[in-house]
Write a structure and sequence with these properties.
heterodimer; A: mainly alpha; MetI-like fold; two-stranded antiparallel sheet; 12 helices; 2 strands; 72% helix; B: mainly alpha; 2 domains; MetI-like_sf (chain B); membrane (chain B); transport (chain B); transmembrane (chain B); cell membrane (chain B)
């Protein structure tokens, strides 16, 4: 009786781990299969091109002979030598950094202010919220053109009004003047204009995420503080800001990466002239006007490497620690 | 008056000031775009500061020039709209086809390398688009894909897939697993469950995602410039408009009419679906 009860139990015990393993394997296989189209696209359009760019950066190649050349040629460091020593490299890197930090900081600060202002309900809030997002969703080509025309010295509304109401003695070429003397100080006018555009176009992005986080802050937390007589600035400093820390940190990183690699906005506004030659515009110029693929690839890699270094520094020293 | 009362009143007023400024700053450029597109160029050059134009002054000749075919002396934007629609719709459908199973795998299935997937996605954004463009330009030239819309579509899929999978995954994790188990008991295979149970439930997220991809593809400029510039017949609206600005004889009011043509579909889609879209994008952001 005892023996017959034990006998069927034994194979059962042996079989169970085996069956679990096959289920796991099945799931593993399904997971990889479902993700394989994604892998394939990313591999073909992103990973392989990046690896290839690395190879290209170490070869002297021009657009004319690339159709004939193979994957591997004579490897050399001359592209990097050329990139580092060519005039304007360091100033372009500096411009990129100023542009990125300015664009990131202003877009987040304005996004935060907008989110705080639109936080509570009021009639028409949905409509206002939607219109605030417009700069971000509108096509870049269209909005850069409007800005160009608004700021135009000949027929732009800004200069017309500036001369009529603000007493400007002559029109200001916002997008094509490298330096402007403001109260005795030279300011990089075109670069500042481009940064302002960047802040205008991307503050809705910050706004959207900060607003979503704000609305998840527990009501009773704030109500308790208000009962204790906390002023709005104290409320913001001690209740809201700690809650927003993580999303602001994430936004900073995201916006920093996106702005650092940005091409279209600057290209369409100034063509990279008047002291606004950011690094990605430089890559484009190496590629299209000098037809120098090797140098373009090397410049692009230097750009990516600089970005990685900055991100590592940020994550190592400045990123807010996860509260345990 | 104590600090709390003073500040509450101050910010009560400031809040409305900020809201007013926000509305002006965000909407004014769009108003200006429309205004210039319906004013004759002579009027704009004569009074550049006017912010209002009476109906008597309005003209549609700018739109006629932008939309009429090249053979009639226009800019042929109707054809460009067709190209852009083709690219944007195909990119949207294909991205969904690829990212839906992908996001399901990331949110539900345990597989080797699941935790490493996001590094791959990060790589897409870490490298400047212009860097990817160099080899893609070469390969597409060799394969004869440069100048074709197909090459462009593939690039757009790759560019939108990380956000797409992120959005869908956030939504899929909110769907109870028990529903899938019930479907499995009913004898559904995994693929059938995905199609007949998950897809209908995730419809809002899928829709938000589709709109996101469509907008990105509709607005994109850099890759369109690099791949299509030599093939005028395949230009997208963004590219056509940018090329138009280089032309000397094209007046700024025509350029603004083109901008309106480019922007209007996006604005309509956006206002119609704003809630769906913003909730889809920020799902998960409120968790910290």
């Amino acid at each position: 009786m005892v023996a017959t009860e034990q006998r069927p139990a034994a194979p059962e015990r042996r079989r169970r781990p085996a069956r679990q393993l096959t289920r796991k394997q099945r799931e593993n296989r399904a997971g990889l299969a479902y993700l394989s189209p994604t892998f394939l696209v990313v591999l073909v359009v992103v990973v392989v091109p990046i690896l290839w760019t690395i190879l290209l950066a170490f070869q002297r190649l021009r657009l004319i002979n690339i159709r004939r050349s193979g994957l591997f040629g004579d490897f050399t460091l001359r592209n990097f030598e050329y990139v580092f020593t060519s005039p304007g490299f360091w100033s372009s890197l500096w411009t990129t950094l100023v542009y990125t930090i300015g664009g990131t900081a202003f877009s987040i600060v304005f996004g935060l202010i907008a989110a705080l202002a639109l936080r509570r309900r009021f009639p028409g809030r949905t409509l206002v919220r939607a219109s605030v997002l417009l700069p971000y969703v509108a096509p870049v080509v269209a909005v850069t053109f409007v800005w160009e025309i608004m700021l135009s010295p000949q027929f732009g509304v800004t200069n017309d009004w500036g001369q009529r109401f603000l007493g400007w003695d002559r029109p200001i070429a916002f997008l094509s003047q490298r330096e402007y003397n403001l109260w005795g100080v030279d300011i990089p006018l075109a670069l500042i204009t481009v940064i302002v555009f960047e802040a205008w176009r991307y503050f809705p992005f910050a706004f959207l995420f900060i607003l979503a986080r704000l609305q998840a802050v527990p009501r009773d937390l704030e109500e308790a503080a208000v009962v204790d007589g906390a002023a709005p600035t104290q409320l913001f400093r001690h209740i809201l800001l700690p809650q927003l820390g993580a999303v602001i940190a994430l936004l900073s990183v995201l916006r920093f990466i996106m702005t650092f690699n940005k091409f279209d906005d600057v290209w369409l506004l100034t063509g990279g002239g008047a002291g606004t030659q950011v690094a990605s515009v430089r890559v484009y110029e190496f590629l299209t006007s000098r037809l120098d693929i090797g140098a373009a690839a090397a410049q692009g890699l230097v750009l990516a490497a600089a970005l990685v270094v900055l991100l590592v520094i940020y994550l190592r020293f400045f990123a807010p620690r996860e509260e345990s | 008056m104590d600090r709390a009362t003073f500040e509450t009143r101050l910010f009560g007023v400031l809040r409305w000031v900020v809201i007013a400024i926000l509305i002006v700053v965000t909407l004014f450029p769009f108003y200006y775009m429309v205004l210039l597109s319906i004013r004759p160029i002579e009027a704009v050059l004569g009074n550049p500061g006017d912010l209002w134009a009476g109906p008597a002054e309005w003209t549609v000749s700018t739109y006629r020039e932008v939309l009429s075919p090249v053979s009639d002396g226009g800019q042929g934007f109707v054809g460009l709209i067709g190209n852009t629609l083709l690219v944007a719709v195909s990119a949207t459908l294909l991205t969904l086809l690829v990212s839906l199973p992908g996001s399901y795998a990331v949110s539900r299935l345990q597989f080797v390398g699941r935790r490493q997937v996001h590094f791959l996605f990060l790589a897409i954004y870490l490298f400047p688009a212009i860097l990817l463009a160099i080899p893609l330009f070469t390969v597409f030239t060799r394969l004869g894909l440069r100048g074709s819309l197909f090459g462009l579509i593939i690039v757009y899929i790759a560019q939108t897939i990380p956000v797409s999978i992120y959005m869908l995954r956030n939504y899929l994790t909110t769907i109870p697993v028990s529903l899938e188990e019930a479907a499995a008991v009913d004898g559904y295979s995994r693929l059938q469950t995905l199609r007949k149970v998950i897809l209908p439930l995730a419809a809002p997220a899928v829709m938000a995602n589709a709109l996101y991809v469509f907008m990105i593809a509709w607005n994109e400029y850099l890759f369109a410039l690099l791949f299509l510039v030599e093939n005028r017949g395949n230009w997208t609206v963004s590219l056509g408009l940018a090329q138009l600005s280089g032309g000397i004889e094209v007046s700024k009011t025509v350029l603004m009419a083109g901008s309106v043509v480019l922007t209007l579909p996006i604005v309509i889609i956006f206002f119609a679906t704003e809630r769906l879209l913003t909730e889809g994008l920020t799902a998960g952001a409120d968790k910290g």
